[in-house]
Amino acid sequence: MDKAGDAAFRGPGLRDRWPEMTYGGALSFLRRRYTRDLAGVDVAVMGVPWDSAVTYRPGCRLGPRAIRAASVQLAELKAFPWGFSMLESLAVVDWGDVMLDPHHPASVAPAIRAAAEGIIATGARLLAFGGDHYVTWPLLAAHAARHGPLALIHVDAHGDLWPDDPGRIDHGTMMGRAVREGLVDAARSTQVGIRTFHDSDEGLEILTAPWIHRNGIAAAVEIARARAGDAPVYLSFDIDALDPAFAPGTGTPVPGGLASWQALELVRGLGGLNLVGMDVVEVSPPFDHAEITALAAATLAHDWLCLLAGAGGAAPRPVGRL
């Protein structure tokens, strides 16, 4: 078999990497193999195409597809700034999308949690692409069931701490619910980039976007790292944490947010923490331009994988002043 093209379904091994046309071929995240056989897998990528909990613009059910498509260039070269191929020490596959029934909304959260628990039970870490931010609640439940209360690093324009009720399906209330349910240890957790008002902080450390602009992203990383300590860390990244100039393709854009470089510096600054899971949510392709938003989302996810690769022994070989 010639080793070129369509590695998403033709690649015979977990660590194989071969030439692809960036503008052609079967799409998966980073051109990784589509499979649900997780033997020997370190990280499984799962799409969660759900957006019926949005409160403004819809469309992020198409986010997983867009993030996969935007990842093609990231699959071409060694990872910047590390200078390694993450596959040297990290086996990554694309698990595909969890099957959801939009006509039975009450079934959605249990379906997401069951899929996540099935992946985590194999020992693989989970990288999930939304979908709206409501999907994080069952993802947190799945991770907390395995690891105990989580140190949450939540990057967002919104704290998602608005009033809630038990049956509510809402992308603006689930973080408060996760704290009250004990899925998240508020004393270990940090919200970054917030620029909407909430009546309570639920015990979380909130680093607003204006505070970050004045004090710098390095200060935010230092606080988040200190609070997390050695706890299991779950990173939830709502793409609307970025300013609309850098992420127009999202459902609830808020001016004054982070720049792409700040977001990337934040993620790259989390190396060495006990990173157990990540989601990237709220990418809405109908409102995107030239894949700006999807490309940011794909790069953030790629860089989180590079942190895991580094922890697994991949040796950085940087070039240039960093």
Unreliable residue stretches = none
**Biggest sheet overview:** 8 strands, parallel
> What's the gyration radius in Å?
18 Å
- So how many helices? 9
Order of helices and strands: HEHEHEHEHEEHHEHEH
Strand line-up in the sheet with most strands? 2-1-3-8-7-4-5-6
SS-based class: alpha/beta
Give the end-to-end Cα distance, rounded to a whole number of Å: 41 Å
Can you give keywords for this protein?
eight-stranded parallel beta sheet; 322 residues; 9 helices; 8 strands; alpha/beta
Describe the protein:
Helix 3 (about 110-120) packs parallel to helix 4 (about 135-145), helix 4 (about 135-145) runs parallel beside helix 5 and helix 8 runs parallel beside helix 9 (about 290-310). By secondary structure, this protein is an alpha/beta fold. The longest helix has 20 residues, at about 290-310. Strand 7 (about 230-240), helix 8 (about 260-270) and strand 8 form a beta-alpha-beta unit. It contains nine helices and eight strands. Helix content is about 30%, strand content about 15%.
Secondary structure layout:
Elements: H1 7-10, E1 43-48, H2 63-70, E2 92-97, H3 108-121, E3 125-130, H4 136-147, E4 151-155, H5 174-180, E5 190-194, E6 205-208, H6 209-215, H7 217-228, E7 232-238, H8 260-268, E8 274-281, H9 292-311
Parallel strand pairs: 1-2, 1-3, 3-8, 4-5, 4-7, 5-6, 7-8
Helix pairs in contact: 2-9, 3-4, 4-5, 7-8, 8-9
